[in-house]
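TL;DR need structure tokens for one chain.
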Amino acid sequence: MKREDLTKLGLAEDVVDKIMSLHGSDIESHKTKLSTAATELEGVKAQLLEAGKQIEAFKGMNIDQIKASADE
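>> reply
TL;DR here they are.
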């Protein structure tokens, strides 16, 4: 949303200011949520990578070794 679009609609400057302030607050809220989600995604990616490494390590083990590793 642009200030110019609102003024073209014939809204008073003080109304446009209030709308832009509310819109800015919404945008900042979404930016925060996006940042949080991106951080969580990176954590999940790291966990997935670690799980993949562990699975690869299990491929070379026999069943008794896997059971012993699972118990640890």
